[in-house]
Amino acid sequence: MATFFSLALYAGSFTFILREGGIPFYYLGVFFAIAVILYLIFNSLSREYVGRAGDAIIVPVSILMVAVAFVLVYISQSIPIISVSVALFTVSLIMFYNSTVRNEVSISTNERIFMGGAGLGGFIGLIVAGVFPGKMSVLDSYMAIIMLAVGLAAVFVFFRRPTGRFSIADAFHVFVRPFNSMEKIRTIEKKLLLLAVSLDEIFVWIAIGASFPFVISAGLGSGMSRPAVMFSVAAAIIIGAALVYVFESSNIPATPFFYPVKDLILVAGLLLLSFMYPASYVAGMIFLALLPVAFIGSVRFLKSQFPSSFDFRQITSFFRNPIMVIAPLMGSILWAVSGAMLFLTAMAFAIFALVIGIIVITNPKIFKVSDPYETANN
C-alpha cells in the first residue's frame, strides 16, 4: 500500500513536475518509452533472480531506490535528471512486485492482496497530490523522506541471506527463453486464433501506449483544475482495483464475451477523452476503470483455448513489446499536434482490435474457439 501510494503520487505529480520545469507535455511519451524499455529488460531478470536467489535484499533496495527517485525530481526538473528518476522508479517497482507477489506459492492470493493495496494506496496518493497546496516537487521531497525511512526499516525486516545464486548464464537463459517458446507454435492447433490474438494485441497496445501517458494532461487540457483531475483519476483507480479484486475472488466463467469487451471499453473511453471537456473526461475515466477487469477476463478466456503447457503471451509478446516502446513516441508526436487527434487516432486502433475480437467470437468454427462455460455444463 505504501509503495503504491508513492507510485500514484509520483505518476500523478509527474505531469505537474514537467510543467514546473517548463518541459512540454509531449515529452511524457518519451519518458513513458524509457520506462517501458527498462520494464522489458528488468522484469524477467528480476523474476529469475528472485526465483533463484530469493528476495534477500530486493525489497529494501527497491524502496530506497524510490526515495532516490523522489529526491532527484526535487533537486532538478530538467530532462536528464527526470530521465534518471524515471529509470530508478521503474526498476524499483519491478523489483518490488517480483519480490512480494511473484515469488510465493499462492500467487493468486498475493495478487488479490496486491490489488487491494495498490487500489487503496493509489487512491490515497492521488488524493494527496490533488489537495497539496504547493509545488509538486516539494511534495516529492516529503515523500522521499518517508520512503527513505520505510526502506531503512525494511532492511531489518526483509533482509535474509540469499537462498541461491544468480549467474550470467541465468541471465542469458532469460533472454533466449522467448525464442525457445516460438518452436511450440508448430504444435498448436489454433494457429489462426493465435494470429488474431497477436493482431488484437498490436492494435490494443498502440492505442494504450499512445494515449495513456497523456491522461492527466488531457484533464488539464479539458480545463479542469489539478484537484479535479486527481480526484477523477483516483476514483477510476479505486473502482478498477475493487472490480479486479471481486473478479479474482469469484468463479466467473471465462466466456468468449470477455475477448472483445476490453476493446469496446477502450474505444468508448478514448472517444470520451477526445472531446476534451470536463464531463466527458470524467466519464472517460470511469469507462477506462473497467479495462483491467476486462483484460483479466480476456486472458482467462484465451488461456482456456490453448493447452496449459503453452503460454500464448510469450508468443504475442514478440509483437507487443516493440509496440509498447514505439506507441508512446507516436503519442508524443500526436499530442504536439492536438490532444483530440491523439485520442481519436488511438481510438481508431482500438476499433481495429474490436473488429478482430468480434470476428473471432462470431466465427468459432473458423478460429476453433470453444466456450469453456458451455463445455463444462455439457
Q: Care to describe what's here?
A:
The chain is mainly α. It has two domains: 1-161, Growth Hormone, Chain: A, CATH 1.20.1250; 175-368, MFS general substrate transporter like domains (Growth Hormone, Chain: A, Up-down Bundle). It is 80% helix and 0% strand. The protein has 17 helices and no strands. The chain has helices at 2-20, 27-53, 58-75, 79-100, 107-131, 136-158, 168-181, 191-211, 215-221, 226-249, 258-274, 278-288, 291-305, 312-337, 339-362, 364-367, 372-377. Helix 3 (58-75) runs antiparallel to helix 4 (79-100), helix 10 (226-249) runs parallel beside helix 13 (291-305) and helix 11 (258-274) packs antiparallel against helix 13. The longest helix is centred in the N-terminal third of the chain and has 27 residues, at 27-53. The model has no long low-confidence stretch (mean pLDDT 86). Keywords: Membrane, Transmembrane, Transmembrane helix.
Chart the SSEs and their pairings.
Elements: H1 2-20, H2 27-53, H3 58-75, H4 79-100, H5 107-131, H6 136-158, H7 168-181, H8 191-211, H9 215-221, H10 226-249, H11 258-274, H12 278-288, H13 291-305, H14 312-337, H15 339-362, H16 364-367, H17 372-377
Helix pairs in contact: 1-3, 1-5, 1-6, 2-4, 2-7, 2-14, 3-4, 3-6, 5-10, 8-14, 8-15, 10-12, 10-13, 11-12, 11-13, 11-15, 14-15
List keywords for this structure.
mainly alpha, globular, 378 residues, 2 domains, Growth Hormone, Chain: A, 80% helix
- Give the end-to-end Cα distance, rounded to a whole number of Å: 43 Å
Radius of gyration: 21 Å
Strand content: under 5%
Global structural class: mainly alpha
Overall tally of domains:
2
For the biggest sheet, the summary is: none
* Total helical segments: 17
Give the overall form.
globular
Instruction: Sketch the topology as an H/E string, one letter per element.
Output: HHHHHHHHHHHHHHHHH
